[in-house]
């Protein structure tokens, strides 16, 4: 039953997010909203809606480690898997100046978020600042993109036009939006409860499930978009998709979620997973800034690195405490948490 809940939740999240994007894009076009605004807001928020719903549902159900694990794990998956796998199909290159700028911003935001998490908790006011930064970033991107970067606007228009099977009226668009939101809420609730039960049954922590299963499931829309972009030889869309998603995950999803409830950060995440996320950003930043193509060989390396990371979560290499230890033996769990503060040899080797 647990597996059916998780599978059903993921399916509803994917369908709900897709239907929401179709309805919202059509509604925005009917209201004559500029394509650049649609791309920066409607499409970006729509494709990130599964992560947002899951994170909010997690904190409201008393599982904040799934929420933070979802964001950190999604950002890791976005770079290592969502860019790595399409690059194996066709080398990804991007020469759009705006995306290089956004790549630098993503790297800075990633470093800032990691530093923020080292305090052990994300507070409400910090979430409000992150959300405000996102609003400022979107406003700045719109005006700079409209005035200076026609190539960016053309790429976004092309991405919007690729969204087929859309409603043809405003009222039908509202129907799509309502159905999409309902699917997201229902799917998120099923996924969170199923993930909590699965973590307990498998003897792993909720953070492990959030970093792996939940994060990968909510990153499937980005993976699908990047695969299609790679097949169409649109490297700018593939890379822009990942950069935008990572920015939204940190500033938007984590910002909004921490405004609802303060998010405690486990020692495991601060000593291991955050640094994997930062290392992944380091691996991809030179390619974005210099406009160099991500080769098939490097794509295979990124994909393999992601598989190694997932392996480390489930085989104790990361130092992730087990759920049964946390629930049945608090002294042992405390000792494990203290041991986690020492960075594992696997992490040091991967960074080196």
Task: Describe the structure using short key phrases.
single chain; 352 residues; two-stranded antiparallel ribbon; globular
Strand content range: under 5%
CATH architecture: Up-down Bundle
Q: Let me know the CATH homologous superfamily.
A: NCX, central ion-binding region
**What proportion of the residues is helical, as a percent range?**
over 70%
Number of strands: 2
Regarding CATH, which class?
Answer: Mainly Alpha
The CATH topology turns out to be A middle domain of Talin 1
Number of helices: 15
Count of folded domains? 1
Low-confidence region ranges = 323-352
Task: Report the sheet with the most strands, covering strand number, pairing sense and barrel closure.
Answer: 2 strands, antiparallel
Mean pLDDT: 76
What is the H-and-E element order? HHHHEHHHHHHEHHHHH
Q: Which class best fits the helix and strand makeup?
A: mainly alpha
Principal-axis shape? globular
Distance between the termini: 43 Å
Q: Order of strands in the sheet with the most strands? A: 1-2
């Amino acid at each position: 039953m647990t597996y059916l809940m998780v599978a059903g939740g993921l399916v509803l999240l994917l369908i709900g997010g897709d239907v929401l994007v179709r309805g919202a894009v059509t509604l925005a076009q009917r209201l004559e909203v500029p394509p650049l605004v649609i791309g920066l807001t409607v499409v970006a928020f729509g494709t990130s809606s599964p992560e947002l719903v899951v994170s909010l549902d997690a904190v409201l159900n008393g599982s904040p480690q799934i929420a933070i694990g979802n964001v950190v794990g999604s950002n890791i998956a976005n770079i290592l898997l969502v860019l790595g796998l399409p690059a194996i199909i066709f080398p990804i290159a991007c020469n759009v100046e705006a995306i290089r700028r956004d790549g630098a911003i993503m790297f800075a935001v990633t470093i800032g978020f990691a530093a923020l998490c080292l305090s052990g908790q994300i507070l409400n006011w910090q979430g409000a600042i992150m959300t405000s930064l996102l609003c400022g970033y979107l406003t700045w991107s719109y005006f700079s993109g409209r005035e200076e970067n026609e190539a960016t606007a053309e790429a976004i228009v092309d991405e919007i036009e690729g969204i087929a099977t859309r409603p043809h009226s405003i009222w039908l668009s509202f129907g799509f939006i309502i159905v999409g939101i309902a699917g997201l809420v229902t799917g998120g609730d099923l996924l969170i409860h199923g993930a909590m039960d699965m973590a307990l049954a498998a003897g792993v922590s909720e953070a492990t499930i959030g970093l792996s299963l939940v994060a990968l499931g909510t990153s499937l829309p980005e993976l699908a978009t990047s695969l299609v972009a790679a097949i169409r030889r649109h490297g700018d869309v593939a890379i822009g998709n990942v950069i935008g998603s990572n920015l939204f995950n940190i500033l938007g999803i984590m910002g909004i979620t921490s405004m609802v409830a303060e998010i405690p950060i486990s020692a495991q995440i601060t000593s291991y997973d955050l640094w994997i996320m930062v290392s992944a950003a380091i691996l991809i930043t030179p390619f974005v800034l210099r406009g160099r193509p991500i080769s098939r060989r490097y794509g295979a390396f990124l994909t393999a690195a992601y598989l190694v990371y997932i392996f480390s979560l489930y085989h104790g290499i990361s130092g992730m405490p087990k759920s049964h230890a946390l629930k049945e033996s608090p002294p042992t769990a405390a000792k494990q948490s203290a041991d986690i503060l020492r960075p594992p040899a696997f992490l040091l080797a991967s960074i080196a």
